[in-house]
Design brief:
- About 55% of the residues lie in helices and about 25% in strands.
- By secondary structure, it is an alpha+beta fold.
- A two-stranded antiparallel ribbon has the order 1-2.
- β1 and β2 form a beta hairpin.
- α1 packs antiparallel against α2.
- The longest helix has 24 residues.
Amino acid sequence: MKNFLYMSVLIIAALLIGGLIGNSVTGLAGISWLGYSMHFSFDPGTFLELEVLTLTFGISITINVAQILLMLIAIIVYYHTAPKLIKKS
């Protein structure tokens, strides 16, 4: 359970920090490629429509290069540090 929480925290931190970096470097020459992003979405559609209840579902994901790089770094950090954390506790 500790491993899953540790990995989750690393990945979420990588996504948040990568999003901030990607959005802030879009106008800078030389590193603006970090802000290049792709948008994937499944547009909401009505799956169930009754008199009382309407059920819709949709998802949208936007990811940039900085987030991908930081997720890879987070995975590397996890595999280098997780065994040390498990042995201590």
